[in-house]
Design brief:
Blueprint (H helix, E strand, L loop, with lengths): L32 E3 L8 E13 L3 E15 L3 E2 L31 E3 L4 E17 L2 E14 L24 E2 L6 E10 L13 H7 L3 E9 L48
Parallel strand pairs: 1-5
Antiparallel strand pairs: 2-3, 3-6, 4-5, 6-7, 7-8, 7-9, 9-10
């Protein structure tokens, strides 16, 4: 660190170095700290696709494609000092057991790990119909059926994960992405009105063409399914000291016998 403000006549001040007493191993004990691996992997994605095109009747072009994307070493920031699953049985909610000694590094509070071990997978069927301009009409319609999975989603401008459950098992957090949109339909149409010079009606130049010629009607539409909704409970009732409870009930939540595990301990189940 350097002094942010100084008198130029006095010269640039030297660095402020902590004393030996301030450099002891226990100087940050009892505090929350951050951790950034010096050899963390770079994030990358792999993309692939295969498709066919075929002209069908009335000048319509059909395009069908499969598209896939796989992400590796994605940002997955979480508290790596979360109490591990195999230690949660020591927690007694009634007694309010102090779970700090069961952290991997009990001398610290939370340890925010800036890690890149997240994963994602996207698979989609993409279909489009295009009609070239003919008789003044052009059409395009697209349909996408997709599935997006990841170990965590960030809906903000900050890379990372909005909600996570188990800091010690990335695969336990792998589920339907918070940004998954299974079905998307888009389309558009443009119709050139048959008025003016060179058209079927009022085929004249001059003032007539200037008034009625060159007009078009167009339309755009979009239909898509909603994104997933996952109930979340920000509670420490499991004794983990970090993470978020996600549902483990599948199917109709009003029917009994559909519990798939211990709340807050199994992998997340996303609900549409």
């Amino acid at each position: 660190n350097v002094h942010p403000v100084f008198q130029w006549d006095n010269g640039v001040p030297g660095y402020i170095q902590p004393s030996a007493a301030e450099r002891t191993p226990d100087v940050l004990n009892g505090q929350g700290i951050g951790y950034v691996p010096h050899n963390d992997a770079l994030s990358y994605s792999e993309q692939w696709q295969i498709g066919v095109q075929h002209g069908i009747a009335l000048g319509i072009l059909l395009d069908v494609a499969y598209v896939g994307t796989r992400g590796e070493h994605l940002a997955f920031n979480r508290d790596i000092n979360q109490v591990p699953f195999d230690k949660l049985h020591y927690y007694d909610p009634a007694a309010g057991t102090d779970m700090q000694p069961y952290r991997p590094f009990p001398q610290y509070q939370s340890i925010t790990g800036t890690l890149t071990d997240g994963i994602s997978m996207y698979n989609a069927l993409q279909v489009s119909l295009k009609k070239q301009v003919g008789s003044g009409l052009s059409l395009v319609a697209t349909y996408t059926q997709a599935k997006n999975h990841d170990s965590g989603s960030s809906t903000t401008n900050t890379p990372g994960v909005d909600v996570w459950q188990n800091a010690h098992d990335v695969k336990a957090n792998y589920a339907t992405s918070g940004m998954d949109t299974p079905y998307v339909t888009n389309g558009g149409a443009v119709y050139q009105l048959p008025f003016g010079k060179g058209k079927q009606l009022l085929n004249r130049g001059g003032l007539v063409d200037g008034i009625v010629g060159g007009w078009e009607l167009s339309s755009i539409w979009s239909l898509h399914s909603g994104i997933v909704f996952t109930p979340e409970m920000f509670d420490n009732a499991s004794g983990s000291l970090a993470g978020t409870w996600l549902p483990v009930r599948v199917g109709d939540p009003t029917k009994p016998g559909q519990i798939a595990g211990n709340p807050g301990c199994s992998g997340p189940t996303q609900l549409h």
